[in-house]
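User: Hello, can you help with two protein structures?

Assistant: Certainly.
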Amino acid sequence: NVGDNVGDVAGMGADLFGSYVATVLAAMVLGNYIIKDMADAGTVLESFNGMGPILLPIVIAGVGILASIIGTFLVRISSNDAKEPQVQKALDLGNWVAIILTLVASWFLIRWMLPETLQMSFFGEGVKAIPSRHVFYAAMIGLAVGALISMVTAHYTSLGKKPVLDIVKNSSTGAATNIIAGLAVGMKSTFASVILFAAAIYGSYALAGFYGVALAASAMMATTAMQLAIDAFGPIADNAGGVAEMSELEPHVRERTDILDSVGNTTAAVGKGFAIASAALTALALFAAYVTFTGIDGINIFKADVLAMLFVGGMIPVIFSALAMQSVGKAAMEMVQEVRRQFKEIPGIMEGTGTPEYAKCVDISTKAALKEMILPGLITIITPIIIGLVFGAEPLGGYMAGVCVSGVMWAIFQNNAGGAWDNAKKSFEAGVEINGKMEYKGSDAHKAAVTGDTVGDPFKDTSGPSMNILIKLTCLVGLVIAPILGNHDTEEGMAMTKEVEVTVNNSVANDQKEVKVKVIMQDNNDGTVTANVTSTTFENGTSTVKKHVFTGTEEEVNAKINALEKVKVNVEKEIEVTKEDIKNLPQA
């Protein structure tokens, strides 16, 4: 019971809320770049103090919380004699209501907070004008993919479904065939989930660029509160059944908790599927923010260092899984030794007259969990830092891509294989027909299924969920160290911007004249620099833009800037932007 609370409630909560915050963070970073793209195109955002694209993901997340609260009120059972289908239907109703309310609210929020047309950069295509409704379509894709991946997970892990029945059937010939069948189910389950991921990535990017990808993830995570409630349903029902059994309540109480527990097994597996989907889209949103923030023009896998780091990134989830599984084995051995010691030294445990030392068992698992995660944690945090500092921004991007792709595959495989093994074992509790013969708990086939479930537990409860943390944390560390990589200081070519704004009169708008001057200098990393000088004049509702672009050595570019005879803005008095002004530009 303690383990269920820690792993499936507290642990899952930390995982989902980590994704929740990271998606909002990534969407805000990318929203900031939309504002810059629009400013470069001469469009000034007036609503929400010009911060609509940055604030939108926060507001959608807040609305999602309200929608989840409303959804929980609709989870009702009309009869005390309800069976599994009625309980599952009640949970599904609350979930779908929360999703639909979030979707409807997103439509109005996007129309309210964003201009009708957005200017945003697409890799290799430059800046494009995108209708704001495309952002809504991207959010719709995120919500749909979250729901569909949960359905795919339910198909591969639910009682009575073909994948689970295949494992049950293979249990009749021993533990080896049970394990082989479970591995096959887990591997096959990656197909549909990855196709959905690919469709979500392609669709949301085509609609609204990287901002669309980040907002798709934010919309999917908006109903996190409802998803976590459904996921916690399983361990709560399991704990209730344990309390009912230990306190020797009436048989009908245990029957009802068994029904809830049966539904809870499916919701737990579905919750893990949603967590994987959220982690994948979150990592992609963070990755998009990283690429945009570092200013690298894509990631070229034909470069030796990038390709090498791509392979290193693909290897990390495998090593991480191995360390997690090894940790479970060590902790299990210590636990078994402690339990054997208590049986030998404490009389009456088997008869129920002696009290076991529960605290010592909990202490062993707690210490093992903390100690054994030190090395995997250090690998996750230190590796991207070393790669970024030694090889640079683009190879680190290759490493992050490798971790994301490999990590998602391993997460789906391990989660679904473990869930299928678990429910294959539970199928024997009610009895299952194998080759025309009914098999029950205690049969040889059941014993084989128990062995498979024992293998599956660290898959679905330890190694699988840890992949979510790995891929998110890797991309988050990359984003955190992005300012010290690539084009992010004066010497390495960080864009420098200075704006001079002047308003002529304090009278009505038609009598106002506003001039903005922007100077950007950037290192091309080949011994040359590029200077962009842009002056934008806003007068009587129209704007006039003049641009100068100079490329060459730093001395040549400075000479060309000086040759302009200084950038002049003539209003009531002359404002000059000189070479000295450029040197004193603030870094941004």
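That covers the first. Now for the second protein you mentioned:
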Amino acid sequence: MSFQFTLQKVMQVREREKNKVQAEYQEAIGHFEKVATQLYELLKSKEDLEELSRNQIATGTSIYKLQQNQTKIMRLQQEILEKQRATQLAREKMTVKEQHLVTKTIEVKKYEKIKQLKQEQYKEEEKRKDLMQMDELSVQLFAKR
């Protein structure tokens, strides 16, 4: 008779749940990276525009161009604030998904450990039964002499 783990179906369900949560976590990481990259690009654009404004002031340019640059900088600043909020939300979501994944991973590990212990108990019991049968057979053979 082979080993049958009584909680095998439960363990499989937990593994599927863990895999689903892991996929959600990977998706959250991807979303966070995308939003963070967009934030970086906005910050870089603002920095470049500020550098351009400084150069224009140093070389002398029209007030109209400086006003245009200032308007663009203010618009970029607003976009940056919105993107910072989005980045923070994405980071929080990613952290929650990570914690959920850790919880599911621990659950699966518990079932794997239980299965391992039950399997070892089964092997020990089989070994004990075999030894008892061999002892019984030895006694029978000895009694026949």
